[in-house]
Amino acid sequence: MDAIELPNPRIERGRIRHALFDFDGTVSLIREGWQGVMVPHMVEVLQATGTSETEEELTRVVRDYVDFLTGKQTIYQMIRLAEEVERRGGRPEDPLVYKHEYLARLWERIKGRVADLKAGRVAPTDLAVPGAIETIQDLHARGVRLYLASGTDQPYVVDEAAALGVTPYFEGGVWGAVDDYKTFSKAMVIDRIIKENRLEGPEFVAFGDGYVEIENAKAVGGIAVGVATNEAERRGVDEWKRERLTRAGADVIIPDFRCRAALLRYLFAEDE
User: Fold this and answer.
1) Which H/E stretch holds residue 224?
2) CA separation for the pair 64, 73 (Å, rounded)
3) What is the largest CA-CA distance in the chain?
């Protein structure tokens, strides 16, 4: 249990039947470094307004709201970008235009990773949060029904989950963002899981590295496991994530899933 933090040790354990996983940063590291694509793109857009702010000042502004909105669908960051353009006297594009440009740039960064995965040149575990795939397999073997929900667009999530080889375990479905963003959210997915399966709170657990799925899980009385992975190093804790997950109400915080044996014993009350 050394790697496992328990901000809320009073949860009711041993009843889990359904589990939801966030994708990027919780299961997948295919998109690691996405901020290094999104932030410069947004700074370019804001510079084009003719603002007198320096690149450093704009970078600080952009990072603040990108970080604040991380975990929500990408479109929300682009909506904020459009607002920032207008605030500086510019004429903003439709947020979808910004989103599609960002996704095209990000694809240039990650397409080699996806190709290597599909060709077998890279093992899935090399582009996954350590222990995540094995944890998914262990939960599935225990009879837990699994769901995948991401703020990344649906086609990408489906493709990248398949490349990692985890799709068959998510019998509850693989869910991602759509252009009509008001028709999808992680909260909607969680509410549907709870209602369709007539679950009581402790029968549901969510795993995620963002505040959204943590808050959504707690809103229905579920268990929330925060994954504070240092994505670049693939080891240790990202302190920014850890602080954010704690503030969001995570019951359990882990650096990654290397501690999965102890984590599952705890969640299923097999340590008593």
Assistant:
1) strand 223-227
2) 16
3) 63
- Give span(s): CATH 3.40.50.1000, the chain: 18-29+128-267
**Taking a C-beta distance cutoff of 8 angstroms, is the pair 16, 267 a contact?**
yes
CATH number of 18-29+128-267: 3.40.50.1000
Q: CA 107 → CA 53, 54, 98, 138, 229, distances in Å?
A: 29, 28, 14, 31, 22
pTM above 0.90, yes or no: yes
**Which DSSP letter does residue 5 get?**
B
Judging by beta carbons within 10 Å of its beta carbon (0-12, 13-18, 19+), is residue 36 exposed, middle or buried? exposed
Cα distances (Å, whole numbers) of residue 93 to 72, 76, 96: 20, 14, 8
pLDDT along the chain (272 residues), means of 10: 88 97 97 96 98 97 93 94 97 97 96 97 98 98 97 94 98 93 92 96 96 95 97 93 95 97 97 74
Q: Which two tokens stand for residue 64?
A: 């603040």
Find out whether 225 and 205 touch, Cβ atoms under 8 Å. yes
Q: Which of 42, 94, 41, 35 is closest to 238 using CA atoms?
A: 35
Q: CA of 13: how far to CAs of 33, 125, 270, in Å?
A: 35, 29, 9
**CA 161/CA 170 separation, integer angstroms:** 10
